[in-house]
Amino acid sequence: MKIIMIGAEGDIGRAACAELSERHELIKVGRSSGDIHADISDRASIEEMYRKVGKVDAVISTAGSVHFGSLTDFTEEQFMLGLQNKVMGQINVVLVGMNYVSDGGSFTLTSGVLDRDPVKQATGAATANGALAGFVKGASIEMPRGLRVNVVSPGLLEVSKPRYGSFFPGHEMVSSERVGLAYVKSIEGALTGQVIIVA
Amino acid sequence: MKIIMIGAEGDIGRAACAELSERHELIKVGRSSGDIHADISDRASIEEMYRKVGKVDAVISTAGSVHFGSLTDFTEEQFMLGLQNKVMGQINVVLVGMNYVSDGGSFTLTSGVLDRDPVKQATGAATANGALAGFVKGASIEMPRGLRVNVVSPGLLEVSKPRYGSFFPGHEMVSSERVGLAYVKSIEGALTGQVIIVA
Known about the structure:
7 strands, Rossmann fold
């Protein structure tokens, strides 16, 4: 399969690439790295990405920003960052991409653990993750041409511990290999409308 | 208890009022009806509402708009309506209200069935509902002064069938009485961080 991989240089993106690259052609996309540059916060940038790549069989997004901060300090703008970037950005990857993915192809988005096992300062992430779960559930029953859509919800990756571990006291971490398998399951399998949890 | 009831004139708001009004003092709020007017899409309007009412023991929101339409026709603006109005509007009711609700008081928001039992044309609602589920899960562990926050997720109300029934083929409907009890459970009980499902 020909697969667009948005966020290929992040920890989760690398995990997905490692499991998929032997069997598939990956087009790596990043804001400032990869084969093609695109920014999911800008719908025009997403459209340009698809025009450059042309027809594909699957699209993965591991991209999306949220704000972290104490609930009592959270502003409307900080909440909207997650809703506009991580949620709307990934939804736009699907809305625009429906015209470019071949029959029976798939979209695999990425959320995370924080709506099912919350930590402090992460209400923005919890809200965004929940939105993506709702999106794939709703969208899956209306996708044209047998297209599928899932979201992978990984726990904190072992490789991400140095940067984010202090936010996740007591959380069991997950291996990059197990996270990669979740993307394989979504892309090579037949699921749709699912939150694929890696816990 | 003194309770702010936003969306008091809607089908869900009426159901909540019917169960709560005998034992509690309800301040009914609507965009153009009720004791006080407020529009949750405007943070300044929410702030003015709280300033007028002063200290309360609980806040209910049954307000929030989303767009309904086929997934393949959905625009970014139509998705953002739900994220800004139903999601951010209700989140702002909590963020602003944390300064006005007494110790141990509660917020009860409202989502709906569409992220757990989707129907066509409702991906915007499914996304918004999921976001609210994530929000209460994340926010509940950071609320100050013992404040609690839950979201009620009702199925289609029997009284709403004339207007919305055609969107929900085969859905079992729920009575207004059962929906009202969910708000009682949230307000008079001790739950927090929960999606209270009425199915």
